[in-house]
Amino acid sequence: MHLTILLLSYFFFWASPVDWQTLQSNVAIRGSVLDESSGRAVPGAVVYAISAADVSRTTANSKGHFYFLTLLPGEYRLCAATNGYAVNCDPGNPESEELFAGFEYGATVVLSR
């Protein structure tokens, strides 16, 4: 097994307004997990949204897509891991983005072998 560290340049956020039916006090993140060398989706990867107050986790579907629908606003880092890949999810890592209530953020997590 190889150990890989997710670099800031391989983690992207973009914001868009949340649908009016969604609770406006929450943050949503949707995104994809991709293989760095092939650009293909990494299905079944476990994705973590890490903040100072909480660690949430979800699993990427068969197309490599993942969703966090009810996160509290705050600073988050994303990381992912699956067989053949591993990412340093060290809570001391300072790389994070502040996410605001009422927005849905898109994210891409790129894994290296």
Overview of the molecule:
Helix content is 0%, strand content 47%. It has no helices and 8 strands. It has strands at residues 11-17, 27-35, 46-50, 55-59, 65-71, 74-81, 97-99, 103-111. The strands form 2 sheets. It has a 4-stranded mixed sheet, with no helix packed on it. A hairpin with a 4-residue loop joins strand 3 (46-50) and strand 4 (55-59). It starts with 10 loop residues before the first strand and ends with a strand.
- For CATH, the homologous superfamily is named as Carboxypeptidase-like, regulatory domain
Counted beta strands: 8
Main beta sheet strand tally, sense and closure: 4 strands, mixed
- Quaternary organisation: single chain
Give the helix tally. Answer: 0
Quick gist of this model?
This protein is about 0% helix and about 45% strand. It contains no helices and 8 strands.
Write the layout of secondary structure elements.
Blueprint: E1 11-17, E2 27-35, E3 46-50, E4 55-59, E5 65-71, E6 74-81, E7 97-99, E8 103-111
Quick tags:
8 strands; mainly beta; Immunoglobulin-like; globular; 4-stranded antiparallel β-sheet; 0% helix; 113 residues
